[in-house]
């Protein structure tokens, strides 16, 4: 008989293992008699849909994991009590569940004896009866009880990349779990830090491999579980808070700070020089479109964090921050525009001006990609910014840039002329509707939901020519010669516009050979090449050109 339980409620079938939060199954490490529960928030497509509470108890006989929880629509699952018992050597012993799915009561009892997992129970009026073979010390992952990944988190703490584990997806079948990679990370909660280990896994499901990532803390305790293909996240409650972020990289002079903006705070990091001057120059770093975290992380390259380290090494304080509505920053991301981001830059400038260790005459803004537009707009509005650097910044309007990038993407596809023309026509229709508010009836609903946003409208209508007219500060345009997302010709075009339109009396351009849009060494510069590049460090030719220009520019300011 097919087993429905929470599998039906979650539409997970074999693809979705449940969740076990880091378990210690060794009798030598006994927990106190009064083990405290740990809370986890369950997210579906980025929205919190429920909570589970987990208690782990250890004694000489083994480890018992108990879960209670409730998941709202569209999952509609209540776990009154789920309990998984492992013996002292990590062998599964028994599993029990009492709960409901979509209003129907569910009761399951599973025993693990002599390599056989025997399950009995009911879901509503349907009887449950299954029997499967399982490997010794397989990790049991009951479908739909997310916080029972505790045992897997614990097991992973004792293996390395390349290891192969067995998992019994109760009550369906046993599968293989391969550890693709493991690496240390730091999670910042407020201004405190947690040292954690992230594991990238492949679950060998009959329907195809499923990518899963799991983050564990001290003692192999589960902190985060992510199943991207199903848009499911299970996050320990302290880490799920708005004050939490994963720290991808840390520079020696990094310090977490909070910067007040208009109506909310920006979570930020400053990077100080190792031997700071009494009054330092400062640089504000800005990330590109679609990159919300302060490190500017794209394809595993923390662009802004690496630039911050190079800037600090040049004796300049660097500031980078989470965009509004992202990470530790307040505000609303869904209503933010390029103009709003420029106002956030001005808030950071005001904060820097209040610091006694900052030279108020030497504050520069450096933006990467779309961040270059934000930097230019902020400089046009805020005359206390003393210099502006555009890294891989576009020279066209946003509408022209999107069509240019679409043409590049279409060149990589095998399409008939008719198919190509259809895609271009739809893109133009979408952009026209966004900018005029008319013609949405000709746009599919799904495309409208993605495009009809304040941010996309601000991007399409942005014109650097108009903004540069009001910029008087020294300007620096640096670009990777292999940039295929924003081709290097944009740097020269921006510089030409600045010479004709702006009041700046200092305009420099540097195009760095062998570097792509991510500012790292590349062979072709194509986006499809990004995953295969082994050097994930910002080119020293880029950071060196930037710091040399900053040093020269700051020195010239009286």
Protein described:
The chain has 558 residues and is α+β, with helices and mostly antiparallel strands. Helix content is 25%, strand content 35%. It has helices spanning 5-10, 150-156, 237-240, 303-313, 338-353, 370-381, 398-411, 417-436, 445-451, 454-461, 464-468, 489-501, 540-556; strands at 38-44, 47-59, 62-71, 77-87, 92-101, 104-113, 116-123, 126-133, 139-140, 164-169, 173-189, 192-205, 208-216, 222-227, 232-236, 244-247, 254-260, 265-271, 280-286, 297-298, 301-302, 317-321, 358-368, 387-391, 475-480, 507-512. The N and C termini lie far apart (82 Å). Mean pLDDT is 89; it is low at 1-33.
What Rg, in angstroms, do the CA atoms define? 27 Å
The parts where pLDDT drops under 50 for at least 5 residues are 1-33
Strand content: 35-45%
Describe the biggest sheet? 16 strands, mixed
Rounded mean pLDDT is: 89
The computed structural class is: alpha+beta
Query: Please, how many helices?
Result: 13
Share of helix, binned? 25-40%
Coarse morphology: globular
Say how many strands there are. 26
What is the straight-line distance between the termini? 82 Å
Could you give the topology of this structure?
Blueprint: H1 5-10, E1 38-44, E2 47-59, E3 62-71, E4 77-87, E5 92-101, E6 104-113, E7 116-123, E8 126-133, E9 139-140, H2 150-156, E10 164-169, E11 173-189, E12 192-205, E13 208-216, E14 222-227, E15 232-236, H3 237-240, E16 244-247, E17 254-260, E18 265-271, E19 280-286, E20 297-298, E21 301-302, H4 303-313, E22 317-321, H5 338-353, E23 358-368, H6 370-381, E24 387-391, H7 398-411, H8 417-436, H9 445-451, H10 454-461, H11 464-468, E25 475-480, H12 489-501, E26 507-512, H13 540-556
Parallel strand pairs: 9-10, 19-22, 19-23, 23-24, 24-25, 25-26
Antiparallel strand pairs: 1-2, 1-15, 2-3, 3-4, 4-5, 5-6, 6-7, 7-8, 10-11, 11-12, 11-16, 12-13, 13-14, 14-15, 17-18, 18-22, 20-21
